[in-house]
Amino acid sequence: MHQSYSILATGDLMSGSGHIAPAHVQRAIAHVPGVWVCLLLMLLLASATVMAEDWVGQPSMSRYTPADTDANPFSFSVLPLKSGEVFVGNGDGVLRYFGKRWQLIKLPGSGAARSLALGRDGRIYVGGYQHFGVLERKPDGRYRFDSLDRLFVPEAAGAPLGEVWDTLATDDGVWFTTNQQLFFAGYQGERLTVDLPGRLQTSFAIDGSMVVALSDHQVYRVRDGQLMPWFKAAAGLRGLVAAGADEFLLLDSDGLMFRVKGAALRPQATAADAQLRSGTPYVMLELPSGDYAIGLLSGEILRLSADLSRFTTWRTGSAPVIALAVDRENHLWAATEADILRLSLSEAWSLLDRSNGLRGPVSHAAVYQDRLYVSTSVGLYGARRDASGGLNFDVLALSSKEVNDLAVTPAGLLVAARDGIYLWRDQRLSTLDEDVLGWRLFPSNVVEGRIYAVEDTGLIVLDRAGDNFEVTQRFSDPSFRFDEISEAADGSLWVDRFLASPMHFAMSSSEHHLQDPEPVMLAPGSDPEDSAAVMNLDGTPLISTDRALYQWDGSQFSATASHPLISIDLAPSSELRLRHCADGSVYAFTGRRLARRDANPAHAFEELHPMAGGTRGIVDVQCTGTDRLVWIGTWNGMVRFDPSVARTEIEQEPPRIESVRSDVVEGGVHWHPIQAGEDLRLKRFRQIRFEYASPALSASPRYQSRLLGYDRDWTDSDSEGVR
Which positions ≥6 away from 562 have C-beta within 8 Å? Predict the structure, then answer.
């Protein structure tokens, strides 16, 4: 992919594809006489390393709608805690998410919760409409809102405060902001009210202190209860984050970025300038990685790299993104005017699906000549970037036809489809073998330039002939019903069959011709009509049925009870498949589980959870070459996996008691303390109900419970955590 560069008015060098030139290139140009700038620029760009397209898709995303929360669609703020709890300021009150359950905590008056903050004292502070206060958890586990506004206006409950737009925790207390006033509640009981000289636009807590911006764009620091003028912006502030010693990064409502040093503002170019100006930014958050997440009123979230030279667009819907926050498992929460979102920040996983233009179930992916291709049930699709940097797919060939597999070769992209086998090259599709149902494509590791194609009733051998392929052998029999191929070091093939024993193709050493296949005999007692999966691990042929795993000992297949694939509980299974990558890693999978082993055969397989558990089903796995990237076809779409990137591990923690309540014989419900060591005094009751939950946000646990002194064995309960 070629890139063109141009000089920006700010003096930064920007690529047309969303990358700013490295600093050393900019410094070199700055110190060269003008007459040579054009020539030097051409030389520098000609020798610059061109970044290949990485085809990163959407992150793992969970969407919570009013059907999930049973609350207003409008949400205004979000506050994840280290405990695993997530609180959301919502139009109906404060929503609490914990253990896969949503709970609504009501507030006084209209009930809306506009803003949230966690104080340094560990308490949760809430700004609502006409009220502000703190959430307190009682001994029985229930949360209750305690008002603080009465401490400031004791003569009038629900005084005309209006919206409490921001609730911000600083080093010494918490600030609540309204249109005309600031209210400060110190951790030691201090109280302070500050009148504003104009209407509030927004506010921030920066480096433990308070910053206020008014509607005239004047920005103040708050020190010792006094407003201290800082600088005046050209537009409303939408983001302000620390960027070094007494230096800040400012994003305004026009989508312009500035560096603030002292009271001076200097324009700052970014790779996402066009997107920021067209999408109207509303909120900006610095991420743990140093990158920035920016929520737009157009409904997208931009992830901008720490050096501002790269960005990714996440399409989350059409609703404006109002608030952003990061939880303990490195996921980004977004509050919008229609729903609540949770997105993974790990770039190890990303998803390409219908939102990118793909249609129909996906099966395989391949990168050919720097372009990503995906096979689907309704055609061959190719990826492209649009003007906003978004990744989109177009159908290129075989529209409305089932495409089953892809294989990259020096001669072009081989395509196995329902009505034939094709070669895609120079944006054109040519037929290699028609009227066959192409199912699988297996490049040979022994015979150079050879591809084995599995079709509906047999096996086709394709050998390279110049810049094309020709069919050199064909084995056809309706009883074959081949699926997977495993190639031995001598070029012979083990091939499995549906509802039948595998077959073996011997290879002539001189001409590399396959001999007629022979059935493979497994151990006595095996059913010849059982499906079996053939594979090769570390040079040893394997056959897995639903009853046993068989290992080749040089003369026959014998059942084994000890094997790494058995240890991870993937074998025995007739669904088991192995894929070997150029870096030596091995992927093992069934229709629902996936594991990876690195290049060291002594290492164990590690189970993987595509998209942090956000997708279902494994269709197939394809390695792209030596870059370690892997494409995984799933029921949800095509998943991109980069094992070199740190992954967010799914938290594994014991469940916690959420509540204990009993239905009393005399009537009513009695709530009991949940703290350890509390004496559980029970009245006569008809039923007692325990609720418990795991703090893990990404995992989907199932629970077991046992009442000491009552149960002998553990009782399974559903994922709701109720008994």
Answer: none
Whether the Cβ atoms of residue 13 and residue 5 lie closer than 8 Å to each other: yes
The answer, yes or no, to whether residue 52 has pLDDT greater than 70, is no
Closest Cα partner for 512 from 549, 461, 567, 466?
461
Query: Could you give the CA distance from residue 575 to residue 589 in angstroms, rounded to a whole number?
Result: 8
Amino acid at 250: L
Structure-token match 């009150």, residue found: 93
- Report DSSP state, residue 41: H
User: CA of 434: how far to CAs of 408, 415, 421, 423, in Å?
Assistant: 20, 12, 6, 12
Token code pair at residue 103: 């709970």
Helix, strand, coil content of the chain in percent (nearest 5): 5, 50, 45
Residue-wise pLDDT tens digits, 132-174: 999 998 888 889 999 998 888 766 554 578 899 999 999 999 9
Q: Which 3-state string (H, E, C) describes 491-515?
A: CCEEEEECCEEEEEECECCCCCCEC
pLDDT in tens, 367-413: 999 999 999 999 999 999 887 778 899 999 999 999 999 999 999 99
State whether residue 405 is helix, strand or coil: strand
Distance CA 264, CA 389 (A): 32
DSSP secondary structure, 87-143, as one string: EEEETTEEEEEETTEEEEE--STT--EEEEEE-TTS-EEEEEBS-EEEEEE-TTS-E
